[in-house]
Model the fold of this input.
Amino acid sequence: MMFLGRGTIMLLKAIVSLLLLTASGSGQGVGKRLLLDSQYDVNRWPHADEERATNVSVQLFINSFGSLNAANMDYTVDVFLRQRWNDPRLVDAVNQKDKITVTSNELQGKVWKPDTFFNNVKDAELHTVTMPNILLRIENNGDVLYSIRTTLRLSCNMEFREFPLDFQTCGISISSYANTDEVIDYQWADINPIDLPDQLEIAQFDLLNFTCKDTTQVYATGNFSGLLVYFNLRRQNGYHVLQTYVPTILIVSISWVSFWLDPNAVPGRITLGVTTLLTLTTLASGIRASLPPVSYVKAIDVWIGTCMIMVFGALLEFTLVNWLANKKIMSHSQTMFKIPKLLAGSDYEETKGQEEEAPAAHSPKTYITYARALDRFCRVLFPGGFLIFNLAYWPYYLMQQYVPLPQSLV
Done:
């Protein structure tokens, strides 16, 4: 009987050891200790007995930074949200191990965790391939690491007065949804609060720097501890220079070709003027489609508006030139003014002769010389005016370096 009793005891010990080893590897050891501890309440924060808030240290690893959507005023970011705190109730909860990783969803729900949320989030997605991207690590001294990977679509209050030569400030706002600052006190991690990859690329933007700050958000339901991080971004100008500015400069320059055509070349000058105007209008419509309908004037509006004035002005100039070329001079008193020799060109002698001869001795003449003089004048006026506009436009908008931080992201 003693032999059978001793063998039974050894068998039971082997079974218990095997169960403990399996439970320790899967994180069930923590669950059993918590279930056995009747004083552990998942609904109470770790330092409730001490009547002080639990300090939660937060670190964000920016896995990828999506492009900014100007039309919807939002952007997408893929982050690892890492939160650390100390729970004195979990001291020595790990079975003879320094730390343990809890992977079971059921057991994770039995450990207290802060109810962190993003104030300015529009849409969010937790990654579950191939397993839920959630890490819960508990150490023997009660320190807890809770890390999740999520993709966020966040709102960003953008300012487009200098678009596309603009700077944008977009941020992430973190806070507790239900627990006031008497329960949870959020703090940025002391080392690398925002961790960025070495080769972080953002479509159409350069990340200049970021700013982290702590905040307290005041609502009707109470005061909540929160964290803010602002990303200062500068738009890359290469795309818009090649797709917007260079084409419009060429379109405006093509419209000046009409000044070298004969005033009576009606089909050619009308076709040239209307074609350039319609092309510029189509290009401007495509630019407006990618932006929200804001009420203020943007830098691109100033540019496109000036280009349209140039093209439309060339079309109106042809209307005046054609009218002058076909208007007949009935008498010498109808002569408008004396054309300067510089503008008259090869027509100077003809104009001088018309002024000296009696109008009755010849058939009625037209103001063709005035029309040609106006064309010569516009050959200098339009390019010169456009050059002066460029000398004022580019320094003004390129010198806009100050980026004001938004007052709130909520």
